[in-house]
């Protein structure tokens, strides 16, 4: 893939759960909108006394206990999706190349910290790649070739791109300010009804977007990581943060919220940000239940996924449209920056002013 980079209503009451580590007051209005009108699950009334006792033992309010439980369930769900993806991996080939999963003598590709992000060393052989000169264009081409060869040589289930580090930093800063949003994907042959019941010219399916941020990786080295090094990177050598973006169908999120399964996970790898000025993007589409449970010997070229390649690319393009401002594109010169910023601010800070037609207009790929 080449880089292309609600007035409120009961129908959207579940939309804006803000799971963030910042000031709670900033998202209070949005949180109230999400949970307005939702009834307590049946088990809460049945086990109310036990829940109250558990909350008291932990020194928490009942609402805080529920929030912690939902967040833990969401982390387990994401981990299980990644585990299903790993089960489809091909056996290691004998002809090792920089883009084959291989181990360098004396090093391990297994990440020792608690990050849920799959380490880039488990995808490509970074030390071997850096052992010979490569330009940014060559690394991008190898990254694309590797993912194109996946799934029996079809490339299905993956999208990829390389992002200039300056543009990535812009997206990162905006993502931290507005970590959640909704991206529309056009649908042909379906009733053109918006989530708040308004008719529109083209039918759309809406996907709930959520950013997450992780510690920066260690600077890459041709000799591999030093497992005994305890010296933290200085400000001049520290890489940008790693980031992930999860996409979940809005309807499923409204039903299951933090228990909903993400259909697409974008991961930004900043490992080559300093050495080559690029950030590698990897998009993993969640396989269907049948595909995830299939034995490794099953032909993966016929694998089925929860999202099509085209829809995955449209969602990735949506990240650029709403989280990359001032990139010099035609859309920016025509006021696209102001429209994207206005919609993100309304979604997070003034949800009662959020307008679905404006969202569809800005998200459209055609004038």
How would you summarize the topology of this molecule?
Blueprint: H1 28-35, H2 42-46, H3 48-58, H4 62-86, H5 126-130, H6 136-148, H7 150-153, E1 158-164, H8 165-177, E2 180-187, E3 203-214, E4 242-249, H9 250-256, E5 264-269, E6 278-285, H10 289-293, H11 309-323, H12 330-333, H13 336-349, H14 356-363
Antiparallel strand pairs: 1-6, 2-3, 3-4, 4-5, 5-6
Strand order of the largest sheet: 1-6-5-4-3-2
Q: Tell me about the biggest sheet?
A: 6 strands, antiparallel
**Unreliable runs:** 1-43, 88-113, 330-334
Question: What is the count of β-strands?
Answer: 6
Q: Measure the end-to-end span.
A: 22 Å
Number of helices: 14
What's the multimeric state?
A: single chain
Task: Give the helix level as a range of percent.
Answer: 25-40%
Strand portion: 5-15%
Overall pLDDT level: 74
Indicate the overall shape. Answer: globular
Report on the architecture of this protein.
This protein is an alpha+beta fold and 367 residues long. The chain is 37% helix and 13% strand. The chain has 14 helices and 6 strands. It has a 6-stranded antiparallel beta sheet with strand order 1-6-5-4-3-2, with helices on both faces. β5 and β6 form a beta hairpin. Mean pLDDT is 74; it is low at 1-43, 88-113 and 330-334.
């Amino acid at each position: 893939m080449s880089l292309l980079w609600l007035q409120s209503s009961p129908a959207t009451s579940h939309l804006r759960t803000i799971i963030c580590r910042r000031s709670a007051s900033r998202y209070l209005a949005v949180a109230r909108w999400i949970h307005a009108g939702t009834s307590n699950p049946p088990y809460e009334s049945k086990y109310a006394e036990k829940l109250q006792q558990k909350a008291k033992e932990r020194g928490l309010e009942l609402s805080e206990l529920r929030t912690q439980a939902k967040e833990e369930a969401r982390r387990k769900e994401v981990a299980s999706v990644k585990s299903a993806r790993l089960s489809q991996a091909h056996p290691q080939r004998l002809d090792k190349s920089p883009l084959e999963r291989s181990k360098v003598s004396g090093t391990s590709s297994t990440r020792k910290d608690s990050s849920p992000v799959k380490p880039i060393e488990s995808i490509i052989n970074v030390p071997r790649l850096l052992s010979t000169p490569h330009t940014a264009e060559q690394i991008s081409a190898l990254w694309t070739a590797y993912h194109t060869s996946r799934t029996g040589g079809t490339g299905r289930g993956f999208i990829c791109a390389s992002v200039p580090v300056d543009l990535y930093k812009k997206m990162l800063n905006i993502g931290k300010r507005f970590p959640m949003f909704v991206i529309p994907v056009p649908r042909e042959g379906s009733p053109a009804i918006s989530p708040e019941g308004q008719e529109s010219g083209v039918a759309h399916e809406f996907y709930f977007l959520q950013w997450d941020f992780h510690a920066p990786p260690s600077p890459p080295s041709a000799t591999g990581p030093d497992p005994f090094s305890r010296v933290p990177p200085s400000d001049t050598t520290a890489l940008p943060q790693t980031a992930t973006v999860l996409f979940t169908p809005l309807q499923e999120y409204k039903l299951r919220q933090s228990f909903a399964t993400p259909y697409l996970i974008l991961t930004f790898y900043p490992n080559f940000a300093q050495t080559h000025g690029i950030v590698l993007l990897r998009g993993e589409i969640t396989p269907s239940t049948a595909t995830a449970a299939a034995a490794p010997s099953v032909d993966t070229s016929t694998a089925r996924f929860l999202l099509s390649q085209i829809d995955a690319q449209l969602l990735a393009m949506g990240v650029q449209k709403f989280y990359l401002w001032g990139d010099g594109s035609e859309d920016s010169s025509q006021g696209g920056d102001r429209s994207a910023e206005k919609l993100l601010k309304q979604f997070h800070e003034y949800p009662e002013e959020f307008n679905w037609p404006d969202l569809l207009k800005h998200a459209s790929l055609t004038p």
